[in-house]
Amino acid sequence: MAKIGLAVSVLLIGLILAGCNVYASITIGPDQLPDGVVGQPYSATITATSSETVIGISIASGLPPGMAVAYVPTQNTAVLSGTPGAAGSYPFTVVADGNKFNSGGPHAERAYTLVVKP
Predict the structure, then answer these.
(1) CATH number assigned to the domain with residue range 23-117, chosen from the 4 options 3.40.50.2300, 3.30.70.1490, 1.10.3720.10, 2.60.40.10
(2) N or C end of the chain: smaller count of CB under 10 Å?
C-alpha cells in the first residue's frame, strides 16, 4: 500500500513541476435534440455540467430562421426556442468553458443538427 501512495505522490509532484494542469471535464447534453416542425413552437434546453463552475456556454451561427437562443448562466444552460420558419437540417456547435480562475480551464464542444420538418 505504501508503494501505491508513493507512486501517486510522485506522479502529482511530477505534474506540478512540469506545469501541467489537471481540470475537470465538461459534459454537454442532451445527446441529440428533438426535431422541429415548420410553423410550430419549439423549445429545447442544452446543459453544460462539470464539477467546476462552467462560466460560458455559447452557440455559433447555424440556427434555423425564427429560432433564437437564450443563455441562463446561473444554470449553465442555453435554451433554443422560437418557431422554425424553414424546413431543413441546421448544424451548429455548442461550446462550454469553465474554471473562473484560469483561462486554460476545461473546454468542451458538441456538434448538433436541428432537423426541421415541413
Answers:
(1) 2.60.40.10
(2) N
